Every structure is written in C-alpha cells, then in structure tokens.
C-alpha cells in the first residue's frame, strides 16, 4: 500500500518535470498510464495538473471539468484557490474571477513567497483586464518583489503592458526570457503575439518555428500554422497542423473543431476542393455552412483577390485611425497611428469626423453603400475599401482588402487582429442593412482616377447626410435642415432620410419625432437590436415607463436576448425596488455574457449603493471609470463615492492625473475635474482648470456651455458676458438665447430675460428651463391660471414629455388642494407610472386632511423606491396627524436612514415622543446616523440647532468638535460650529470658525452672510459690510443677504443708504415678499404709515406665509384704525388657499369680535385638528367667552390618544392660573410639565411671569435664565427675560443683574436691529443703569423712526439728561400732541423732568401755559399743565388762581374737573394746598364722580375723616 503511494508520487513528480519543459503530451501520457482516463482521477493535485496539461493539448472543456473537480475536492488549499481563479477566468470571465480573488483577500499563502507572488500577479492581471492600470502595476510590483525571477510574472507583466498598448515595453520585458535556449511556452506564445503587433511578422514566425517543434503545445502549432498559411507556405503549414493533430489526445465525446476547420482551410488553399468540402461537412458553424454551400455552387469561379494592406494595430477605441493609417501606407503615405488618433479620436471616432479630417488632408473620400460588384471592381483596380460595421451597442472600422467569390467572402484587414479575416458577402449586407453597411474609399488625390467610371451606390445621399452631420456639429441648424431636404429630394425612400430625420430630432431634443423615425426604421429593420434598444430608451425618455418595460420584455422573450437589450431593461428597472430581485438576476446574466461591460457594472454599482453596500459600489464605480476612462459620468460617480467614503484626496489625485492625460485630447476630463473641485468648494482651482481647457479647446461649444454655467453659478456675470461675446459666432442660436436669458435674469432684467426665453421656446418648445421662467413671469404679472394655461399649451405638443409634466407639477403646488386634486387626477390618468405624480397626490391628500389617501399614494411611491425621503416624511406626517405616533416614528427614522442630510424629519421624530428621555434617545439615533452616513453637511447644522434644546451644551460641544475634526472638508461643519459658539456666547470662537470657513471655502455665499452677521454682533460694522458685500457679489438676489446688509447700514446710521439698498433690490425683485415687508417697516419707522401699511399688504399678498409680516400688519392696523382692511386681506387669502390653516389663524388674530374669533380658529383647527397651537387658541377663546366645559375634552388624554403634547399640558397649567389657582399652576408647570420637557420655553416664560407676580425673586430669575438658555438667539425671548428680571428686582438685586440684562437686550437687538421696541427698551435700561453715553449712541440708530412718538419721548429724556432744555420742550410738546390715549407718554416724561432738577421743572412750567393756549394741543395737555405746577413748586394762591383762570377759559374750561382730579392725585403738591382745593371747590364735585373719588382718596390718605364723611353726605 505504501509502495503504491510512492509510485504515484514519483509519477506525479515525473509528470510535473515534463510539464515544466512544455512536453504536455508526454505529461498527459504519464498521467493516463499511471491513473487511467481523466474521468477516473480523484486526487485534487492530479486533477489540477491534468487539467492544466489538457488545456495545452486542445482539450479545454475536459481541462475545465478536471480543474472544477480539483477545486471542489480541496477548496482550502492555496494552490487550488490560485488555479480556481484561472478556471473562473476561462469559464465565466474576469468578473467572476475578480470577485473570487477579492473575496479571498490579498493574502493567499504567506509561507510560500512564490505562490503568494503568483496570487498577487493574478490581481494585477484581472485589474488590467478592467484597465485599472494603477492598481494592476501596484499588485505587479508587490508580486515581483516576492518572486522577481518568475517567468510567469514576467509574462503577466508583458500582457499588462500589451493591454495598455505599450508593445515595445512589453517586448522588452520578455526579451531576456526569449534569449534563453528554452524559454517557457507561455513566454514564446506571448512573444510571438507581441512581434505580430509590432509588425515583425517574420520574427514571429521564426520564434514559433524555433520553439514549437521543441514543445508539445497545440496552441503554438496552430499559431505557426496560421502565419505560415497566410504567408503562402502551405507545406510548412501542413506540417505544423499535422503536429498539432498528433498532440491532441483522443478522448470520448470530443470534436476537434479548430483542427477540422484548419484542415478545411488548408485543403482549400491547396485547391483540394473535394477534401475541403469533406472537412466542412463535419462543421455546423453557420459561417462554414454558408461557405460550403457557396463552394458547391461556384467552385469554378475565380478564386480570390487580395491587396497587400499592412496590419496596423489599433489601440483602445482607435480602430478608425488605425484603419486609415493602414490604407495610407498602402498608398505609400506614412502617418503615425497615435498622432492621427489624437486628432480625430476620443472614445471612438464619429463618421463625420473621420471623413472631414481626411478630406482636409486633400485626399479623395467618398462614402457609399455596400455593393458586391462595386467592391469587387474597386479591389480589382487596387483600391481597398474602409468598412464600418455597427454591432449592437458598438461600431468598428476595418478594411476590405480582397474577396473570394467561390467562398463568397470579403477579405478583411481588421486593426485588432494581425491575420486576415473573412466576412460573408451576403451575411454582411443582411446583418448591417440598417446602417448600410457604410463603405468608404480613401485615396490620395493623385489616385482618384482609379475611381473613374465606377458609380458608387448612394454616394450623393451620403454626401448630403455628411453635410447634415457637420452642420449639427457646428450647431448650424438651418444648414442641417437644408441638407436634410436635399437628402429627401435625392432619395425620399432611402433609409438615410430616416437617419437624417432622427439626427435632427435628437439635436432638437424632440423625443416624439425621434420615436417616430425609430418606428419607421424598425418597420424596415425589425430585427436590428440597436434600433430596438433605442426605441426602448426613447419610451423611457417620454415617461412611458410601463410601455418601455413591456416592450423590452417582449423583445427578450422573442429571442433577442443580446446583452444590449438586457442592459436596456436593467436601466429601465434600475430605480424600481419592486423589481430589485429581477434587476439583480438580469445583471448577473448580463455580466456572465459580457463581464467587462461598463454599463452593467455601473448599474450594479448603483444597486449596491442604494442597498447600503457602499464599499462594493465604490469598487465597481472605480472599475467603470477605468474600463471606460473617457466616460465622464463614471469618473464623477467614482469621485462622489470616494468623497462619501472619505477617500477624497485619493480620488481627486486620480482625477487630476486623468485630466493631465486626457485634457489635451478633449475638454471633458478637465470639465469633470473642475466640477468636482467646485463640489469641494475649491472654486479658484476649478476656475483655473476651466481657463486651461478653454485655451486648449477654444472652439469647443460644449466647453463654452459648461464654462458659462460655471461662471454664472459663481455670479461672475462679467466673465460670463465676456465669454459669450467672444465665442458668440461659434455658438448655436438656442444656446446663445438661453445664456442671454440666464444672465439677464441673474442681473435683475426680468423683462429682457423673458424676451430671450420666449425666443428660445420658439426654437426648443420642450426646454423646461425657459418654460419655467416664462410661466413664472406670467404667474407674477398675470395669474397662476395664465401660467398653467401656457404650460398646458406647450405640453400639448407632447403630452408624454417628462420635463413639462414636472414643471406643471411644480406650478400646481400653488393651487388650493381642492383645485389641485382634480388636475393631479388627470395627470395620474395620463401618466400613472410617474412616481412624481403619486408623490404630489400624497402631498395634496395630506393638505386636505385625508390621511388615508396620503398614505396610499406615499405607499405607491415607496413600493417603487422604499428609500424615497419625501414619501417617507409624508407617511410619517400622516401617521402623526392621525395620532399613530409609533408608526410615525418608524417612518421618520426610515426617512433619516435614507438621508440624514435632509433634516426635515428631525423635528418630526421628536414630535413623536412626549417625554425628554425619549427625545434624547431619538437625538442619539440621529447622532449615530450622522456619523454612520458621513453627512454632506446639512444634517450637521440642523442637529446642532435642535440638540441644544434637549442636550447639555457640553454634549453638543463634543459633537461640534467631533464634526470639525472628522469633516473639516465640509463648509457646513464650520457654519454649525460658528452658530453653536455664537449661541453659547463664545463670540470670539464663533468668529474664528466662520472666518476659517470663509478661508477654506471663499465662494460659499452662506459663509459670508454668517460672517457678516457675526461681525455685526461684535460691533464690527466695517467688516460686516465687507463680508455681506462679498456675499451679494456672489449671490446678488439673496434676500437674506440684502436685508442683513441693510441692517448694517442702518446700525451705522446711514439710513438713506439702507433704504436705497432695499429699493435697488426691489427693482430687481419687485414682488419679493420679504423685501416688501422690510421696506414697509422702514416706511413705518420713518412715519410714512399709510404707505407702510399698503406695502405690507402687497408683501403678504405675494408671500402669505410671512408670519412676521402678519404680526406687524396686525399691530399697525390697530394703530391706524385699518383692522378691517387687514382682516379682509387675511380672509381673502385664506379663502384662496383654503387648506392653509395659518391664514385662518391670522384672521383669528386680526379680529376683535368673539364670534368671529371662534369661527376663524375653528376653520383653522378643522384643517389641523391636532395642532397643539390651534387647540390652545380655541381653548383661550372658549375661556374668554366663558364656555369652560368645552375646554376640558380638548385637553384630555382621550382626545390626544395618549399623553397630551407638552404645549397642551402647559396651557392646562396656564388655565389653572387664570382660574385663580396660582399655586397649583406653578406646581403643575414646575414639577410636571417642565420636569418632563425642560425644553418647553413657553413654560419657563409663564413660570417666570408667575414668580414675578408673586414677588419670588430668585425663582423668577432662574426661570428667566432658563428661557434664554433655550432660545439664546430668539429676540423675543431675550427681551421678555430681561423685562421680567428688571420688574422683579430693585436696589442691590437690580444692580447685580444690570450687565446681564444689558447682554440679553443687546443680543436681542443684534437679532433684530430694526425692532424699535427692543431699541427703546435697551435705551431705557442704559439710562436707568447710569449709561447715558450708550443710550445716545443707540439713539443714532433709532432716529430713522423719529416719527414714532415713543422715539421722540426718548429723545426728550436724553435732552433732559444733558440739560438741553431748549430742545426738550418742543419734543415734549410733540409727544403730548401725539399721546394717543397713552398716559405713559404724559406722565413718564414728568418723572424725567423731576429728575432733571429745579431748572428743568421751572422751565417746563414756563412753557406749559403756551401749550394750553395752543388750539392744536389735545385736552390731555391739561394733565401736564396740572402736574407741571406741582413740579415747579407753585404756591397755593398761585395754583388756585391758575385753576380759576382755567375754569373761566372759554375753550379749556370744560377741563377744570379733569385738572382738579390730577391736582388732587399729585403727591408733589403740599397736602394743605390740596385741602384748600377741596374746601374751595367741593360743591363743584357734584356730578363728577372721578373728581369726587380723587378727593376722597386724598382725604382718606391724609386721614381727614370729618371732611371725608362730610363729602360723602353732601355728594
């Protein structure tokens, strides 16, 4: 037994020695002798060696079977894994092999450097097949470092260089091995192939002739045979073929087709037709069958003609240049193949380009349709013919250099193969009928005579078709139309007419016309797969998706199972998750058929990415970008995936190297680099790349288009105009019109923009950008109905147009839901498979309050795209409004998982949870998603803003630091950090962050805006103006930036400049609601109140959701007695937008009639029945009108289907306080509501107010500070907290908080610089706390509102404080004149006068009599007259005399009682004097109850009880 094992081992050793010597037949004979037939072999090592051996003996199927069994027998062995990769490469292609080796990793066998080196070499080889040269050479270098003397690795190195078209370098790698006396077989085979590619045919033959007899390789013998036979050395070829035959072992069930076919060839070349036919009878190949039948019919015809056209090896995608160079050399002209390729070829060569270039050389070029007799005549005259063959999904250029009439074939010089090949004459005409096939004669001008007398079929038609293509290339559409008309006149029924019509339709983006021509072509050529695939693509472009899928499935079921149609179906299914499994199945099939098909890999990458397999997708995107290195979307997708996976630098370096390599050949690579740099906000470098591309390709229209878009995106209109003017003559009219319209629009010239875009629509009726602009102008200048009618007219030209349908959906959003719904139903009937329509219907249903419908349509979208963020949010909102919080939370979480950079789901998720602990858990979930998904920025900002409500500042700070550390490449990271530090009052750090952001990303307007705002907070108005000016330079129409700069100008005291800035913006944007609102506020503060009111009405009509505007309008309506107009506007807009609950709430806020209040709030709540704010509004109304019983049900757990929201619980506490139960209210708010939700800011506000009313200082201060901590950037909260703190404190306690209050009020003003109330509150605080200089500085900002009586009152205070009495009294007189029933305006200035000293008091009394005599002064002046006497210390007699004169005054005498009342209430007057007043005028008190009450108050206060009783009796 042991002896048997030893013999077996010896036999295997002996066999391996023979194998290494290339003696494969002897190897096989040893194995067969020792172990029997291959089917009996069981040992994996034996199977492996046997499989490798049979592969060299022409028995590849048996070899693969043996290697498969070897793998299954010992898959854990490193050698088996290594050869398993080769087996998969041979059996299933490189994709399967690559996946296999990647799955097993880079380390195969560290203990065996030789095997490990070979394994790494396998990586190198497979990456080279996918043209990933960088990784291929990287793995090769690692492999050679482990095993530098390996002939196999040298071979792989040469093959990799060969695939790179680096033939001399590849040969140099092999030469040391070939120089040896016995080079390995693979090296010999590869060396011979390289010699052929280098056009060293004789050397290749000599190499094979030297080593093929020495080795036992069927491959070497057959390759030698092929070369010898083509050289005409038939006897030597016969010997090589005989040796090959002798090496092939006889095995059951095998047919030696390759040998038989070569025997057929040999017999035919020798003229042995009977033997040739006998050999052909053994073969079933359609080509051989056709040739065999032709031979039987025409064996007596002349045999063949062959022109000596040399082989020129094409490089990747350079078949046309290589073919032309081969033909040129035939004519004795020398061209360099690569130089020609650089001039006419980039990712293939368009037919028009090759013909134009050759013609420009002065050569004679004519295209024509294939005709056997014509081609034969040309060849007979010594003229080879270029032939373009169009296969499914690709095209190839080669040359017809001969023919064989007996066999019925053309002799083909293919630039990919060094051997002459054959093409069936009849088969070519039939196979390529849809495209001609197109033939072309290319001869030097001095050889054009050879063509005389030969009528080239359809040559004039091809001339017209060529003219059409050239016209479209230079964007001369009229010339293209002329060429098409000439084409029709010459050959109305010829297929080129249809192809010409299709070209023009494609240029016009006229999808219906394109489909029409495709259908006409398919009527003639129903089996043409390119036409079938194109028709399917066009159906998708037209939005007819279901029809597209059905059509493709029918074609595949009918037997058209070509990879092109499978790929087209995959593309149609790609984004529909309902058929994800089917899509994967088709992709697997497609990649088995064509494992290097980039489109298939790209589709698989997209699927993997969507399924969360990001690393696998990234690998696939890279393979696509390498495999088709001139396809820009592959390069862009690779970069975007790399950026997502934090490999930005690596990918950017790759893009830069790619641009350097391809940039001189085409602008595409540089444009891609520039666009990706722009994504990284490296705009300066991006601009430099564009400039470089424009210098390299000055007449490239597409490049000019991209550059113009880029300049516009940067708001560099000057450069855009200059480029457009410079290149205008080279650009198509439509393109010029589009950019002129865009530039005019961006510059604010809307009228001129409309002119350009209407002209563009006349040329391009389906141009959605132009359509959107013109419709938008119609909506603004006419009506929404006019805009929709215009869109419908354009859409009627093609009801299936996807883009126009999208525009209509956008405009329909402005309609009330009741009007929108029928239109959406009509769209759904027309395009039911358009998910955008279902999405819009879900939105509309949600607005209508039909939650079931909203869920149904959202589910329809999610069935196709389960990660659709918008549909998930709609579903979540519907569940939330239907009080199904659990389902809502699930949907919100799914939306966040789908995209954490669309943070609209953040707040929704928190709404699902009533208590703080659950909200914190939800924030933790969002936090994890932000880190896991690697946010692109928007989610970071939203999270930081939201988290501060529920997390400690320390927790949020840790997150901000983490974001800055991990994603400094995001401008949003710096913005979020700046906002956070601003909110926690670390202004210096905030400025550092925002300035670093501006430094890194100088072309992000948002950063400049925030920098300007932060500088303003730091009182750096000069820096703020500079930053905001830069922001507006980049984005001139950004309303927030316009308003912020206006604020800066106002703060600086330049009010005219501030208003002028707003006016200029309004000239560009005359219907921008926010600008109109800001303008109205300026007008109001300047005293132009009626105009201000009217302007705000316009603002709200344009922007009904402008909540600040509604608040202002309500305030102004009360002051101008125009509440009716304000309410009428709100009602009109609410009726127009009947589903807008906010508008009904504004109606409620504007009315002062209780019945209307209740009706309006009920209308609002009917739309949002579980909106806490609306429920609270209704409860407040019910409380005011005494309908308390109706309140409790709305606050109950039953109504809310669980714990009521925090806002409702807070209102319940408020209600208890209103009902007089203060202690319960405080306890409920403090110990329940705020304990469970400490982020409830309104609760802290109410609690602080209640503590203030109760005189509890410290609790009030604590609650006020909590309010500020929760809303550090909210002006209203800051002011309320400051006022509460001032009202609850006095003395030392007040002084202790003065700076804190100043900080709050200053922050509030920084948030809203135009709010007069904040300004005046801060000014009063400055005065009260002893800082008049600050008050004066602040007054310079406020004076824009000098028409405001409260502002004039503060001017009076400042004048009194500085003893400017001459200025003070006119101010006081104007305040009294405009007192508006506000006693504060009468009395508070008297307190300021009293504080100003005796001189001021005396001076006031000297002025007041004149005021009293002024007929324009209101009766209220008597109050000042009365109190001024007291302040001046007028004697009793004088006071009595003054009062008597007043009583007798014919105009003011009626105010006697009013004056007496104020005198009696004035503590500044001596009690004795006031008693004299009572005694003198007691009898005048009858019938004047207010004066009598003042007398009683005085008497009781002075304890003059007898007088008090007497008055009670007599009155």
UniProtKB/TrEMBL annotation:
Question: Peptidase C39-like domain: from which residue to which, for each copy?
Answer: 308-415
Pfam families registered for this protein in UniProt: Peptidase_C39_2, TPR_16
Q: Which UniProt keywords apply?
A: TPR repeat
> What InterPro entries does this protein's entry cite?
Peptidase_C39-like, TPR-like_helical_dom_sf, TPR_rpt
Instruction: Describe where the TPR repeats fall, as residue ranges on this chain.
Output: 667-700
PANTHER family from the entry? CELL DIVISION CYCLE 16,23,27, CELL DIVISION CYCLE PROTEIN 27 HOMOLOG
Listed name of the protein: Tetratricopeptide repeat protein
**Organism of origin:** Alloalcanivorax xenomutans
């Amino acid at each position: 037994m042991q002896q048997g094992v030893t013999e077996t081992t010896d036999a295997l050793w002996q066999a391996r020695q023979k194998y290494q010597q290339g003696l494969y037949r002897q190897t096989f004979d040893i194995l067969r002798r020792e172990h029997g037939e291959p089917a009996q072999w069981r040992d994996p090592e034996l199977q492996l060696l046997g499989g490798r051996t049979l592969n060299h003996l022409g028995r590849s199927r048996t070899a693969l079977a043996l290697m498969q069994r070897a793998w299954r027998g010992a898959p854990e062995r490193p050698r088996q894994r290594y050869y398993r990769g080769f087996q998969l490469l041979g059996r299933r292609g490189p994709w399967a092999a690559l996946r296999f080796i990647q799955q097993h990793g880079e380390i195969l066998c560290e203990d065996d450097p030789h095997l490990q080196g070979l394994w790494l070499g396998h990586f190198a080889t497979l990456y080279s097949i996918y043209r990933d040269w960088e990784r291929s050479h990287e793995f090769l270098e690692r492999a050679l470092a482990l095993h530098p003397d390996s002939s196999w690795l040298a071979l792989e190195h040469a093959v990799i260089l060969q695939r790179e078209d680096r033939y001399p370098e590849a040969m140099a790698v092999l030469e040391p091995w070939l120089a040896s006396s016995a080079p390995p077989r693979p090296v010999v085979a590869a060396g011979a192939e390289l010699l052929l590619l280098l056009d060293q045919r004789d050397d290749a033959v000599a190499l094979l002739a030297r080593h093929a007899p020495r080795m036992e390789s069927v491959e070497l013998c057959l390759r030698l045979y092929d070369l010898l036979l083509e050289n005409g050395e038939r006897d030597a070829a016969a010997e090589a073929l005989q040796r090959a035959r002798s090496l092939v072992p006889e095995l059951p069930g095998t047919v030696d087709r390759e040998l038989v076919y070569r025997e057929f060839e040999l017999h035919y070349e020798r003229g042995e037709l009977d033997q040739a036919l006998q050999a052909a009878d053994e073969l079933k190949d359609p080509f051989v069958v056709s040739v065999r039948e032709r031979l039987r019919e025409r064996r007596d015809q002349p045999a063949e003609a062959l022109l000596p056209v040399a082989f020129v090896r094409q490089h990747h995608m350079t078949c046309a240049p290589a073919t032309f160079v081969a033909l040129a050399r035939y004519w004795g002209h020398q061209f360099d193949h690569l130089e020609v390729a650089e001039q006419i070829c980039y990712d293939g060569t368009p037919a028009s380009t090759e013909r134009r270039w050759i013609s420009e050389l002065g050569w004679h070029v004519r295209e024509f349709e294939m005709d056997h007799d014509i081609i034969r005549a040309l060849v007979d005259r010594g003229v080879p013919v270029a032939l373009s063959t169009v296969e499914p999904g690709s095209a190839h250029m080669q040359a017809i250099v001969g023919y064989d009439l007996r066999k019925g074939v053309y002799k083909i010089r293919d630039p990919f193969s060094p051997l002459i090949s054959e093409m069936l004459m009849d088969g070519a005409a039939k196979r390529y009928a849809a495209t001609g096939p197109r033939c072309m004669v290319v001869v030097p001008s001095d050889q054009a005579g050879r063509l005389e007398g030969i009528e080239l079929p359809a040559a004039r038609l091809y001339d017209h078709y060529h003219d059409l293509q050239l016209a479209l290339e230079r964007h001369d559409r009229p010339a293209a139309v002329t060429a098409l008309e000439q084409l029709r006149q010459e050959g109305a029924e010829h297929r080129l007419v249809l192809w010409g019509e299709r070209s023009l339709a494609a240029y016009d983006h006229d999808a219906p016309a394109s489909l029409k021509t495709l259908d006409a072509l398919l009527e003639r050529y129903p089996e043409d797969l390119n036409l079938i695939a194109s028709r399917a693509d066009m159906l998708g472009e037209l939005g007819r998706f279901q029809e597209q899928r059905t059509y493709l499935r029918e074609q595949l079921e009918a037997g058209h199972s070509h990879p092109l149609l499978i790929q087209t179906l995959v593309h149609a299914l790609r984004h529909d998750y309902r058929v994800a499994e089917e899509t994967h199945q088709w992709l697997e099939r497609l990649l088995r058929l064509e494992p290097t098909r980039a489109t298939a890999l790209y589709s698989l990458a997209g699927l993997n990415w969507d399924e969360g397999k990001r690393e696998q997708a990234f690998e696939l995107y890279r393979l696509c970008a390498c495999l088709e290195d001139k396809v820009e979307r592959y390069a862009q997708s690779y970069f975007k995936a790399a950026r997502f996976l934090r490999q930005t630098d690596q990918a950017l370096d790759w893009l830069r190297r790619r641009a350097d390599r391809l940039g001189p050949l085409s602008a595409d690579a540089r444009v891609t680099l520039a666009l990706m740099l722009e994504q990284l906000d490296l705009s300066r470098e991006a601009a430099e790349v564009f400039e470089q591309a424009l210098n390299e390709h000055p007449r490239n229209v597409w490049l000019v288009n991209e550059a113009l878009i880029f300049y516009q995106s940067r708001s560099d209109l000057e450069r855009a105009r200059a480029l457009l003017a410079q290149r205008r003559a080279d650009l198509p009219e439509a393109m010029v019109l589009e950019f002129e319209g865009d530039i005019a629009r961006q510059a604010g010239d809307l009228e001129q923009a409309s002119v350009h875009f209407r002209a563009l629509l006349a040329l391009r009726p389906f141009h959605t950008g132009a359509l959107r602009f013109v419709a938008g102008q119609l909506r603004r200048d006419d009506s929404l109905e006019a805009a929709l009618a215009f869109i419908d007219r354009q859409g009627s030209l093609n009801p299936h147009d996807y883009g126009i349908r999208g525009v209509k959906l956008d405009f329909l959003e402005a309609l009330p839901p009741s009007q929108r719904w029928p239109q959406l139903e009509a769209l759904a009937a027309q395009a039911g498979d358009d998910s955008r329509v279902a999405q819009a219907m879900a939105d509309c249903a949600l607005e209508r309050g039909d939650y079931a419908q909203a869920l149904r349509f959202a589910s329809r979208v999610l069935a196709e795209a389960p990660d659709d963020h918008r549909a998930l949010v709609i579903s979540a909102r519907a569940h939330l409004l239907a009080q199904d919080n659990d389902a809502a939370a699930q949907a919100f979480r799914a939306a966040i998982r789908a995209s954490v950079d669309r943070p609209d789901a953040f707040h929704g998720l928190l709404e699902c949870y009533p208590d703080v602990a659950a909200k914190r858990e939800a924030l933790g979930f969002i936090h994890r998603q932000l880190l896991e998904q690697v946010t692109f920025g928007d989610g970071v900002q939203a999270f930081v803003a939201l988290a501060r409500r529920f997390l400690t500042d320390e927790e949020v700070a840790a997150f901000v630091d983490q974001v800055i550390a991990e994603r400094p490449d995001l401008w949003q990271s710096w913005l979020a950090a700046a906002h956070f530090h601003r909110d926690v009052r670390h202004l210096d750090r905030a400025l550092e962050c925002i300035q670093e952001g501006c430094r890194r990303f100088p072309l992000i307007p948002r950063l400049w805006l925030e920098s300007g705002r932060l500088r303003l907070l730091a009182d750096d108005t000069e820096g703020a103006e500079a930053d905001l000016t830069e922001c507006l330079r980049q984005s001139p129409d950004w309303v927030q930036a316009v308003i912020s700069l206006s604020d800066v100008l106002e703060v600086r005291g330049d009010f005219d400049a501030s208003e002028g800035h707003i006016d200029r913006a309004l000239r560009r944007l005359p219907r921008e609601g926010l600008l109109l609102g800001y303008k109205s506020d300026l007008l109001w503060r300047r005293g132009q109140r009626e105009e201000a009111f009217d302007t705000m009405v316009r603002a709200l009509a344009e922007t009904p959701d402008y909540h600040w505007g509604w608040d202002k309008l309500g305030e102004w309506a009360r002051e101008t007695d125009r509440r009716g107009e304000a309410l009428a506007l709100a009602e009109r807009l609410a009726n127009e937008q009947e589903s807008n609950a906010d508008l009904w709430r504004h109606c409620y806020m504007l009315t002062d009639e209780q019945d209307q209040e209740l009706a309006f709030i009920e209308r609002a709540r009917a739309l949002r029945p579980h909106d806490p704010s609306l429920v609270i509004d209704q409860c407040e109304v019910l409380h005011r009108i005494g309908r308390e019983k109706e309140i409790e049900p709305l606050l109950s757990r039953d109504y809310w289907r669980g714990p009521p929201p925090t806002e409702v619980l807070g209102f319940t506490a408020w209600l208890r306080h209103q009902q007089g139960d203060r202690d319960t209210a405080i306890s409920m708010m403090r110990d329940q509501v705020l304990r469970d939700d400490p982020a409830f800011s309104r609760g802290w506000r109410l609690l602080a107010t209640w503590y203030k009313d109760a005189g509890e200082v410290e609790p009030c201060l604590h609650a006020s500070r909590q309010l500020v901590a929760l809303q550090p950037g909210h002006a209203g909260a800051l002011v309320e907290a400051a006022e509460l703190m001032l009202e609850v404190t006095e003395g030392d306690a007040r002084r202790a908080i003065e700076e804190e209050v100043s900080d709050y009020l200053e922050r509030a003003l920084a948030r809203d610089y135009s709010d007069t109330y904040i300004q005046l509150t801060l000014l009063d605080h400055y005065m009260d706390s002893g800082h008049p200089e600050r008050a004066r500085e602040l007054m310079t900002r406020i004076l824009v509102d000098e028409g405001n009586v409260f502002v004039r009152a503060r001017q009076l205070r400042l004048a009194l404080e500085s003893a400017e009495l001459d200025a003070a009294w006119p101010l006081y007189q104007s305040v009294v004149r405009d007192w508006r029933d506000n006693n504060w305006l009468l009395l508070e200035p008297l307190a300021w006068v009293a504080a100003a000293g005796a001189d001021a008091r005396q001076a006031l009394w000297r002025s007041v009599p004149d005021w009293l005599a002024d007929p324009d002064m209101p009766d209220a002046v008597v109050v000042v007259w009365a109190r001024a006497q007291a302040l001046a210390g007028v004697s009793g007699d004088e006071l009595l005399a003054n009062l008597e004169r007043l009583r007798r005054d014919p105009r003011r005498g009626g105010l006697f009682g009013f004056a007496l009342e104020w005198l009696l209430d004035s503590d500044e007057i001596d009690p004795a004097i006031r008693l004299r007043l009572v005694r003198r005028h007691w009898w005048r008190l009858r019938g004047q109850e207010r004066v009598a009450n003042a007398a009683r108050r005085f008497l009781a206060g002075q304890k003059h009880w007898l007088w008090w009783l007497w008055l009670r009796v007599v009155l």
